[in-house]
Amino acid sequence: MELHGATALVTGTNRGIGHHFAIELLRRGAKVYATARRPELVNVPGAEVLRLDITDQGSVEAAAAIATDVDVLINNAAFTAGGNFMTGDLDAIRMTMDSNYYGTLAMIRAFAPILARNGGGAILNVLSAAAWTTVDGNTSYAAAKSAQWGLTNGVRLELAAQGTQVTALVPGLIATETMKDFAANAGIDFPDGLLEDPADLVRLALDGLEAGEIEIVDRIGADAKASLIGPPSTFDLEAVAASYGAGTRS
């Protein structure tokens, strides 16, 4: 998928990875629709900013009615704070599944006909290595990402006939404010270089998208997928940190 001259829509561009996707796509010569539930928080010079709540069908349809020239869809927006199944707030757990799974599905269903009319194009879904394991403290998020991985594989099969490339980005630990706050609250020190710089991850993802890859992983993502051949395991942040030469603070 050639990104220079493409038209991309990115969800969740008000911060984190989504912001970096919008910036890097513009740098590569794409037109960008930068979307967020609160568009006033989007700071992406050169992009066309749209209000978009992926869990609101009316909002999704409104964005699709405007962005009719899209040939690259990047599904990044997601609610992450569901917590554990047994102790988390049930509404938060529902929102985690609603945004990661149903919200992504709503976006794909709305934009697949647009991609078809524009030559097929590509879809990139931002997943997590948690899809291949689970995370104590946020088991509902891990389950939602696992469901999103299955969704990604399913729509890849269904959209192949219209020539739409469907790619999954499956990273491990990303140096976002959310991850840094989570680690700080857990008393975990990560070694230098373990947390993936969002800008570097985005470049890896877009290089893979242009190369036609259907699954893009970093080193932690690769280890998580390899673990699927054994018994189910927990993604233990403390253990991961220790394995790379760090640990918990005293």
TrEMBL record:
It comes from the Bacteria. The keyword Oxidoreductase applies. Pfam families: adh_short (PF00106). Gene3D superfamilies: NAD(P)-binding Rossmann-like Domain (3.40.50.720). The keyword Oxidoreductase applies. InterPro entries: NAD(P)-bd_dom_sf, SDR_fam. Belongs to the short-chain dehydrogenases/reductases (SDR) family. This is SDR family NAD(P)-dependent oxidoreductase. It comes from Nonomuraea salmonea.
